[in-house]
Amino acid sequence: MTLHVLPAGPIQTNAYLLTAPERGEAVLIDAPGNVWADVAPLLATEKCALRELWLTHGHWDHTQGAAEVVRATQARVRGHRADRALYETPEVMSAFLMPGLQLEAVMVDEWVEQGTRFAALGMDVEVRHVPGHCPGNVLFYLPAAQAAFVGDALFNGSIGRTDLPGGNFAQLENAIRTQIYALPDATAVYPGHGEPTTVGAEKEGNPYVRG
Questions:
Q1: Can you give the pTM of this predicted structure?
Q2: How many domains does the chain have?
Q3: DSSP 3-state assignment of 86?
């Protein structure tokens, strides 16, 4: 598996393209605005078809490019039902959009939840529910790759905002401790914004939630 980190959109939200050229398949995690312009040439170069789009949560900066990606690829979309209104009803997020931005609805094909497991790119994937920043924030954990894609739950040295609708610091703190810090220390943590980190580094040094 090859990991491509693709910051995109007006606030440089991280999208992660996972490609497996030997299988001719790829998965995209989150779809900020205009990310398809970065994804399409990589798929062509590596001769991969985008099979799935995994959404960590429903905030606009992670979903603005989702409809375009789905139109271009017919990728299967996975997300958590707690953010259904955010995915399907763009008007809910309209008050938080930057001026001049447009947001299209995206339909989720398969709702995931705590403990959901499935296979992708020849690897096992585990879903963990990490609410507190957003009711439907989930992480996608790939044990074979020692990698967790956590959305906006946890950042390198920080945590996701809890002052937006549906946010709750106590809930986020608990989710980080029980769902992220419970992963092996060597697990790479790929956040929705900023640089990657590891579970061990955040348990030891994160000033908001200590392990």
A1: 0.96
A2: 1
A3: helix
Instruction: Kindly tell me if the per-residue pLDDT of 96 is higher than 90.
Output: no
Radius of gyration of the chain (CA): 16
Domain membership of residue 101 as a residue range: 2-205
CATH number of the domain encompassing residue 60: 3.60.15.10
Residue 211: inside a domain: no
Residue 176 CA, distance from chain mean position: 15
For residues 28 and 41, the answer to whether their CB atoms sit within 8 Å is: no
Q: Which helix H or strand E contains 150, and what residues bound it? A: strand 147-151
Mean pLDDT, residues 43-72: 97
> What's the pLDDT score for residue 91?
83
Q: Is residue 78 part of a domain?
A: yes
Average pLDDT over residues 37-50: 98
In-domain check, residue 171? yes
Q: How many residues does the chain have?
A: 211
- CA–CA separation, 140 and 150 (whole Å): 7
In a domain? residue 46? yes
